[in-house]
């Protein structure tokens, strides 16, 4: 893995046309430099002050580019990159039960998750994502892949009440998950979250156990919630209560809760979320593709609820492109409310950076460019036909830039993407592994008719 300059006690000086620190609304700095030492940001200052404060130090010239905190993908199923394009244009229930779950039951093992997560991390780094929150089987393999690559992660300790290739029961999911947590507890880039799949796949008893664990360990808990009208209606029919009300009854509404999707909400529920400091993870493209519904983002923001953005998995998106996702979030809000001021460019960018950091419990470490925070930084080249001229770099990033304009990525001060080239992952090996799994799965599906 590419190392930072910290061992030699030499600061890394990044000088760019714009720096977007994400510390104040619609705020950016022109012709500024960010200084990195020992994995942290130690200074941010005008370029014309560099020669006085940092004489005789080399400067990395990023003319025409913007420096900003890396994107935080607050919800994905990383290993599902190996299922990208497997089955499209189906409603959620059919997509899961007829297409995804049968293939997962046959193929998901340690190698599948490790190699699939590597694939996802490579894609995310190339798109400017420096941190992701995962939810999938074999979290030990996901954590291993994340740790080796250098990306920051919050790995989900998956819990479901039915037997899978990972565990036979919810209790075994919990026990094995806690073992994984202990295995990586000294990592400075890998953290964990409790990840019950959904109220319809995890019993009330199991959720009660997870509520206690979440509080005891101060560990975030992410869960698919109110994803579709059918899901909510079915839950009410079986349990005589709405899913969010069940979580409230259990005591899961807290600043540790990451409620994913949330397309079906009433005003009272929005008030509950605000009063309890819960976080909403908005996955606009997956929700649109599966016709699940629209998360009421502007109402949530107006109520003071923290909003984060996730891509969901590549099997339902079909990419892990956070730039594209936050643009969709902004445009969808405007269409949903028939209001061009709904979810501004800055609000969308905030949700994809600091909003995600807050949801994952990492806002003291990452999510903004501030002295003392980890150097989780990306550079985006705006000196392109597609993004010139630049009147407002925030608007340009949200509405015009593409992930192919992400040139460099640093996580914890380590250079992981340099001039579009991955430094900690083997791109050729990842592509070969992906083709291997595609061949195996396609052959199996053909044999099964």
Automatic annotation (TrEMBL):
It catalyses: S-adenosyl-L-homocysteine + H2O + H(+) = S-inosyl-L-homocysteine + NH4(+); S-methyl-5'-thioadenosine + H2O + H(+) = S-methyl-5'-thioinosine + NH4(+). It holds the Pfam family Amidohydro_1. GO terms for molecular function: hydrolase activity. Residues 66-414 form the Amidohydrolase-related domain. Its cofactor is Zn(2+). Its EC number is 3.5.4.28, 3.5.4.31. Binds 1 zinc ion per subunit. Substrate binds at residues 104, 197, 227, 312. Keywords: Hydrolase, Metal-binding, Zinc. It is an enzyme of class 3 (hydrolase). InterPro entries: Amidohydro-rel, Deaminase_MtaD/DadD, Metal-dep_hydrolase_composite, Metal_Hydrolase, MTA/SAH_deaminase. It comes from the Bacteria. Zn(2+) binds at residues 75, 77, 224, 312. HAMAP family: MTA_SAH_deamin. Catalyzes the deamination of 5-methylthioadenosine and S-adenosyl-L-homocysteine into 5-methylthioinosine and S-inosyl-L-homocysteine, respectively. Is also able to deaminate adenosine. Belongs to the metallo-dependent hydrolases superfamily. ATZ/TRZ family. This is 5-methylthioadenosine/S-adenosylhomocysteine deaminase. It comes from Aliikangiella maris. The gene is mtaD.
